[in-house]
Amino acid sequence: xxxxxxxxxxxxxxxxxxxxxxxxxxxxxxxxxxxxxxxxxxxxxxxxxxxxxxxxxxxxxxxxxxxxxxxxxxxxxxxxxxxxxxxxxxxxxxxxxxxxxxxxxxxxxxxxxxxxxxxxxxxxxxxxxxxxxxxxxxxxxxxxxxxxxxxxxxxxxxxxxxxxxxxxxxxxxxxxxxxxxxxxxxxxxxxxxxxxxxxxxxxxxxxxxxxxxxxxxxxxxxxxxxxxxxxxxxxxxxxxxxxxxxxxxxxxxxxxxxxxxxxxxxxxxxxxxxxxxxxxxxxxxxxxxxxxxxxxxxxxxxxxxxxxxxxxxxxxxxxxxxxxxxxxxxxxxxxxxxxxxxxxxxxxxxxxxxxxxxxxxxxxxxxxxxxxxxxxxxxxxxxxxxxxxxxxxxxxxxxxxxxxxxxxxxxxxxxxxxxxxxxxxxxxxxxxxxxxxxxxxxxxxxxxxxxxxxxxxxxxxxxxxxxxxxxxxxxxxxxxxxxxxxxxxxxxxxxxxxxxxxxxxxxxxxxxxxxxxxxxxxxxxxxxxxxxxxxxxxxxxxxxxxxxxxxx
Length: 552
Known about the structure:
Elements: E1 11-12, E2 21-26, E3 33-34, E4 43-48, E5 55-56, E6 65-70, E7 78-79, E8 92-95, E9 98-102, E10 110-112, E11 123-124, E12 137-140, E13 165-168, E14 171-172, H1 184-188, H2 197-213, H3 232-249, H4 260-266, H5 272-285, E15 290-300, H6 303-312, E16 323-338, E17 341-345, H7 347-353, E18 359-361, H8 363-368, H9 372-375, E19 380-382, E20 388-390, E21 398-399, H10 413-421, H11 456-465, H12 469-476, E22 482-483, H13 487-493, E23 496-497, E24 502-503, E25 506-508, E26 515-517, H14 534-544
Parallel strand pairs: 1-3, 2-4, 3-5, 4-6, 5-7, 9-11, 10-12, 12-13
Antiparallel strand pairs: 8-9, 13-14, 15-16, 15-21, 16-17, 17-18, 19-20, 22-26, 23-24, 25-26
């Protein structure tokens, strides 16, 4: 009041309260704007700001020391740079609906985000959450909506990568059974937890319970000691069981942008990349070696362009000499090692096709087979002629992914190594190499697939089983796809079946004294039990029907 006249203060001017010492400061509710450098370098015991504050100017309270801050404003529209920068304040600092700062107490390994002052926060000031590797525990409250707070961009220097344990209302979040999923608070804000020690440990725990439920032994982080030591039959059974689990329990959505641990830990929809990463993770937890494979395109570059690119980015990789990595992730699937040999498995394709044509196939399947073009529409693009063409398997451009897939651009090695560690199934040594998947399991009729929708391969197998033991052995011992056979034996080989459909196991070539096998002897042991029997034919029949075998 001046001269018996009341004046309403609507703003604090620039540098108001500069380097002053106050016991208590009450900014009246008439104030809507704080100017630049207000309370710079001040020492304040209690600071109470206007409930109607709308704008905070540059460098508010920069370099200040404030013991208690309160502000109930609900409509702060802008907070300019430097707010509380280099200042001493409470660990969790909220201005109205803005989170300004969240840090742990000095010497504590806990970050407490369960405080009631966070209940009305719907905006975060820059990267407000900050801590170092000594802080591993995060405390949350079920009464707070963290939609604006728990985002990747809220964490300074990606410090969320240090989170190992999460507590909600004081209870530690753990996976307790095979079908357990993360609590809703974490599900809704999973981007803040992706690829953290917490999420990966949750995945390992969930994998442990899941594998036990499926009758598979769990090795988890000790898998390196086990890979390659299991029997081929055990590796096959594990690969088949986990293939069926993923195909039957997850729904495909090509538009999802997530991570494999989010899909697994929260049981959300999936797509090819997350299918493949989840499958590889589970396989390795069970002691079976696996990696993710992506389709890719490599573009040649000149020596001068290569030199220029290397100057700009010394860490760039040039596959096959003078090529750059064009695109990736049109499609992703798996390379799985069974019995010391690599095979491809594509759970996404098998989910769409409802059978096992893409279970244990080879590079030759991709390069020469035609079945994919009939049933796959996973990744198409418009050609110059205006026709759609399949690009998910393209001209031998199927490779282990470049590790840039698992690294953050323009970050240092600390972050990259952290993110790579969250994908334990991938190795640097193989990146951008074409996997050595040279065999197709169960390729009875030499069409590059273990597939029999028409029943032809099953008939071939039945015809083989009806041969004498001596003839079966002769066929299995063939190294070049030919055997010697008398006229009587040829008649027996080609006479199996009824009048309508007779099955031929060989074709006669007049220029040689041998007959050519029409059945692939190397594909007969379909279930990897080391024996050729009716169980293999039943396995083939069940695969053709899109059902797992009961004859493991």
